[in-house]
Amino acid sequence: MIQRTTNMAIISLRLDSFHYSIFLLIIIFSSSQLAKADNTTQNFHYFCNPNNVTGTYTANSIYQTNLKSLLSTLTSNTQINYGFYNFSNGENTNKVNAIGLCRGDVKTNECLSCLNGSSNNLTQLCPNQKEAIGWYEDEKCMLRYSDRSIFRLMEIGPAYYANNMVNATDLNDFNQVVRDLLDNLTSRAASGDSRLKYAVARARGPNDQSIYGLVQCTPDLSESDCNSCLVQSIDRIPIDCCKDKKGGRVVRPSCNMRFETDFLFYDPTAPPPPPPSTTTTNTSSPGNSNTTTVVIAVVVPVVAVVVLIFICICLRVRKPRKKFKIQEGEEDEDVEIEISESLQFTFDTIRDATDDFAASNKLGQGGFGTVYKGRLPNGQEIGVKRLSRDSGQGDLEFKNEVVLVAKLQHRNLVRLLGFCIEGRERLLVYEFVQNKSLDYFLFDQTKRTQLNWNRRYKIIVGTARGILYLHEDSRLRIIHRDLKASNILLDEEMNPKIADFGMARLFDVDQTQENTNRIVGTYGYMAPEYAMHGQFSVKSDVFSFGVLILEIISGHKNSGIRHGTSTEYLLSFVWRNWRDGSPTNVIDPTLNNDSVNEIMRCIHIGLLCVQENAASRPTMASIVLMLNSHSLTLSRPSEPAFYVDSGAGDFQDMMQSLESSSVQESVNEASITEPYPR
């Protein structure tokens, strides 16, 4: 029986446990993803362009050459003996990333053979597709490749589910045993190291049945991400996988789990992965047996004592995670934060990746420090933020960013790969984003021409989706507090990625507002209730987003538009033209007038976001709906905050009034800190 569960071809299969070797697998793809399987691929589960985010490559192109070379290297690498392969090849749009993972009980030669078969099948069944994934021979191995970054990223789709057709008995007891077994295995696998996150075990079920379980994650995942992926898989059992069945499996790109009753489907004798290779010298030689006996008699007790002491020390000091205590400024609010050690890089690794922080690898500099481009030993490009020792952003912002961003996964958020704390060094390691930040293009007279309206609209929509994820859709509810053009990074296709979470704050799910004695952010983007009274909420992020929309449309910085010797605040300029019926004066002259209606709608949305009354501003969910549905009627905006009606010359007076409190502004428009609110 086959059941299609999603539009991504997630399949549910029910199979007799005694006939797993004889079955016909039918995979349903959409017309754009369909590839016919021949007799050699009947036990091969695959998806072509599974996430509909990548395109195709042409025959004999540089991308195809890089892909062939990468797959050949991956499937012939005998130096790796723990079944996990992650490599990259190429540069920029021709860069290919690949992951190969074998089941924990599969021997090295069998693993490489399985990956080689998967490589042949994927390139045959997904011709010219830049992204593909496949599982071969009952998940003995998984191979995936893509032109986007896929390392250290938890991905739960596409997936497929399979289950035994035979019903279990004593269902309450049976289901509880299965759940307990898989939960226990999840904890064991998640705590594995960077070579293997795999666990198997047998449990005794009702009527003395043997229930076998297996779980595994790609070892590049953090402990928390591995645990999350497996928990989500186990949660599918009573829904659409294998409720009340004697066996079943859930298979995803980042993890898989399986259980069977009276059917041992894995090799229980498989040894654990060998330790990292070291050079050893064989010093044994035939000799006097009495000498050997004396050596053993002396050495063994000494070693035993040393090992015992070492174990005691480890038990005393060992912690699965590092804990940092963060104090929130004047509020004396202690927050104990746990950071997975799997995210930590050594300083030497980052120094080597950046060529000792060479000037040629420098990408930019702000009040926080310097950003460098680097390359890890596996070929992955990274961006490294190195906090300066005299930066206004200290351990608080650093640890805050590590904790929050490590738990966020969205295509419009820059992805944190890890961090380094060593001596006085504080470094953050991110995915490398090719096209720098939005302000690099938007506020440059020449580079601005590269941002046509389609690109600007894509940046507006993508940024809105990223903020919506932070506010409502992520596991955490986060207020960014420092949204601005310099914190919107652009990838090689000019897709926006929100960055810099050093100032972000975590909210409870049902929390709507909070007060702070520590005002952080950048004037011009800060909502009035926050800048003046320290009150922040999701609506303060909405205000910043509205300013950003108006900057994108006008090409002007919010810090002011010059009229001869005077300067007018951006919101005053936009509102004055909107009120006087001349909103086209706001539009950047380099934009094509073919999209005037859409641009005017975005100006309208921007003005709704920057209204003085926070309650009148729309939520991000409403904004995303407004951007996606042009037929939706928009309400009439009221006068924006910080609007100066008496003329452009009052701009400086207004800014001086805002900054009359004790404020120290950081370099290059980076975030500022105000110790006391007005």
Automatic annotation (TrEMBL):
Q: What reaction does this catalyse? A: L-seryl-[protein] + ATP = O-phospho-L-seryl-[protein] + ADP + H(+); L-threonyl-[protein] + ATP = O-phospho-L-threonyl-[protein] + ADP + H(+)
Would the keyword Disulfide bond be found if you checked this record's keyword annotation? no
Name the PROSITE patterns on file.
Answer: GNK2, PROTEIN_KINASE_DOM, PROTEIN_KINASE_ST
Where in the cell is the protein located? Membrane
Q: Which GO terms describe its biological process?
A: immune response; response to oxidative stress; signal transduction
GO cellular component annotations, sorted alphabetically? Answer: plasma membrane
Question: Could you cite one Gene Ontology molecular function of this protein?
Answer: protein serine/threonine kinase activity
CDD domains hit by this protein? Gnk2-like (cd23509), STKc_IRAK (cd14066)
Q: What positions does the domain Gnk2-homologous occupy?
A: 45-150, 156-264
Keywords annotated in UniProt: ATP-binding, Glycoprotein, Kinase, Membrane, Nucleotide-binding, Phosphoprotein, Receptor, Repeat, Serine/threonine-protein kinase, Signal, Transferase, Transmembrane, Transmembrane helix
Could you identify this protein by its name? Answer: Cysteine-rich receptor-kinase-like protein
